[in-house]
Design goal:
- Keywords: Aminotransferase, Pyridoxal phosphate, Transferase.
- Pfam families: Aminotran_3 (PF00202).
- Belongs to the class-III pyridoxal-phosphate-dependent aminotransferase family.
- Pathway: Amine and polyamine biosynthesis; ectoine biosynthesis; L-ectoine from L-aspartate 4-semialdehyde: step 1/3.
- There is one protein chain.
- This protein is an alpha/beta fold.
- Helices cover 39% and strands 15% of the residues.
- It has 15 helices and 17 strands.
- The chain has a 7-stranded mixed β-sheet.
- α5 runs antiparallel to α12 and α6 runs parallel beside α12.
- It binds pyridoxal-5'-phosphate (PLP).
Length: 433
């Protein structure tokens, strides 16, 4: 995309780093420091961060309390890597997770599996476990869903470009329409039920259904309570497990700790990653309903399962932000209102543009990937890091930290609105027809 600017910055990236690099192409500068919701480039330019490590930094950059706990742990020669051996820090994190996340939500019945450190590995574990439990192969995933880039999770992912990278057929999955995917007024639940009830539909009995409560990469499509509950019922009816991929929508992003919280569903398996460490450190896990924890020891092994440094920061994050869940939810709700108003102004600039998402996971479908990309590029020039999402990258998407100060949030929103206004004024190609 912007290779000239990149090489002007530091030629080593273009010279040495693989063409697979991605985010750096949209934000062509070299970053040196970050604090809270501000990232600072080597040249001293400050940027408001509306990307937050793609929701891996839900509490902003370098939270002082997490940083202090981590520095103390390292300084005291605390364990840095312990495979999945018992460590003091793992015990402390598990206890905090139990007391702050699981028990207050009536979820005492879940066990925590330490998977490999990225979201995709938690998804792979969920797929393997569902297949092992049911003895079935087929997994139902949804249009526009994104679940990761390793072979199993990629087979669940909808995006053709990403699937194309596999270089081999991806099987064992039936893709069904997510809510709204067949146009307004089409009941996708009824469609899926018809397909599954018809023994001649060609859809094999499923081992599991997997969905995102809000589709993060797929364009911020937010499923309704009714739809999620309908899928849960269908899973039960057909003897399939219900997997909620909460990797992007979870950990406060939609306003509550879990993206499905408040819905009358009890997923059998829940994937978590991204902001689990609270500090941007790699850490993922799979929550498993106790009755389904039928793994044999080491059956889903890995060198990096449970990241001790992430246990330290993740525990502090839970204690600091979630011990008082009502305060956290109220704060996010307040910021979500500011976000909605700001994005409403953005949508108002373009006929047909509309708001998407839920809670603090919102964006605007501006109708074309080119326009959304131009808006984000101009916003970056004005000091804002903001990305697109959607099948054609047509959604300008905000993933700001949950604790971004209100004035910084407002400033970022003003920048994106100004950026859009300028892009629209300067480009005849975007003139309303
Ligand atoms: C919903 C969802 N699932 C899985 C993943 C994969 O996580 P990771 O990139 O850590 O492998 C992502 C990443 O964006 C995601 O949004």
């Amino acid at each position: 995309m912007t290779t000239d600017k990149q090489s002007a910055n530091n030629p080593v990236f273009e010279r040495r780093e693989s063409e697979a690099r991605s985010y750096c192409r949209g934000f062509p500068t070299t970053f040196a420091k970050a604090q809270g919701s501000i990232m600072t480039a080597t040249d001293g330019t400050e940027y408001i961060d509306f990307l937050a490590g793609c929701s891996s930094l839900n509490y902003g950059h370098n939270d002082a309390d997490m940083k202090a706990a981590l520095v103390e742990h390292i300084t005291n020669d605390g364990i840095a890597h312990g495979l999945d051996m018992y460590t003091e820090e793992k015990a402390k994190w598990l206890e905090a997770y139990e007391n702050i996340v699981l028990k207050p939500r009536g979820m005492d019945d879940y066990k925590v599996m330490m998977t490999g450190p990225t979201g995709t590995n938690a998804v792979e574990a969920a797929m393997k476990l569902a297949r092992k439990i049911t003895g079935r192969r087929n997994i139902i995933s949804f249009t526009n869903g994104f679940h990761g880039m390793t072979m199993g999770s990629l087979s669940l992912t909808g995006n053709a470009g990403k699937r194309g990278g596999a270089g081999t057929p991806l099987g064992g999955v039936t893709h069904m329409p997510y809510e709204g995917a067949m146009g307004e007024g089409v009941d996708t639940l009824a469609f899926i039920e018809t397909m599954l009830d018809n023994g001649s539909s060609g859809v094999d009995a499923p081992a599991a259904f997997i969905f995102e409560p809000v589709q993060g990469e797929g364009g911020l499509n937010a499923a309704s309570k009714e739809w999620m509950e309908g899928i849960a019922k269908l899973a039960k009816k057909h003897g399939a497990l219900l997997i909620v991929d909460d990797i992007q929508a979870g950990i406060g992003r939609t306003g509550k700790y879990f993206g499905f919280e408040g819905m009358d569903i009890e997923p059998d398996l829940i994937t978590q990653a991204k902001s689990l460490s609270g500090f941007g450190l790699p850490f993922a896990c799979l929550l498993i309903k106790r009755e389904y924890d039928v793994w044999k020891p080491a059956e889903h092994n890995g060198t990096f399962r449970g990241n001790t440094h992430a246990f330290v920061t993740g525990r502090v994050a839970l204690e600091k932000f979630w011990a008082d869940k009502d305060a956290m939810e109220a704060s996010t709700a307040e910021k979500a209102e500011i976000l909605e108003k700001g994005l409403g102004k953005l949508a108002d600039l373009m006929p047909g543009a509309y708001l998407k998402g839920r809670g603090f996971m919102r964006g605007v479908d501006v109708g074309s990937g080119e326009l959304a990309g131009d808006i984000c590029a101009r916003a970056f020039e004005k000091g804002l890091i903001i990305e697109t999402s959607g099948a054609d990258d047509e959604v300008v998407k905000v993933l700001a930290a949950l604790n971004i100060p209100n004035d910084v949030l407002q400033k970022g929103l003003d920048i994106v609105v100004d950026a859009a206004r300028e892009v629209l004024n300067e480009n005849h190609k975007y003139a309303a027809e």
